[in-house]
Specification:
With 192 residues, the chain is an all-alpha fold. Helix content is 89%, strand content 0%.
Amino acid sequence: MRNRILLITLIIFLAGSAVIGSENESPSGQESIFNGTLADSIWTIVAFAALLIALSKTAWKPLLKNLKAREEYITNQLSSADEARLRAEKLLDEYKQQGLEIIEKTTRHADLTEKEIIEKASKEAMAMKQRAVSEIDYATDMALQQLWQQAGDMLLLVSHEVLGRSITTDDNKRLINEAISKLQQEQSRAQK
């Protein structure tokens, strides 16, 4: 407050001396900074020095202080922004790594699932094939038994016709067994 009163007094004093100095115009009619007396020049220098001192105490120091505070604030904000950027980059790298791990894990899971499905389908196909082979073998055996039965029946008919008499049960069994064994031997030779 004291500085302000001093500054206002100084400004009033300088304005008054400028008014007084303007009344004493030079006789040539031209104004110049060098017109006037030595006292006016000294008062001008003193007023300018007082103005510089007053401004340095009331304006420049606070202005420089505010500029320094602003500079520190901006520096702090820049360092905070750099730290935030580094944290964000670190988080981004972590999230990228997690994403790659998830993709890798999902790929492994998909590969395992694919292998399991293929193995299951393969096992089912093998089981179906084995069932089909066993059914075919069973059907073949049944057909062969029917064929042997029919061959035996035909043999009995033919022997009855050729011999003109009936064959006993023992003769019948013996002839059927001989015929079946011959047919099986011929069949096994044909398959080889």
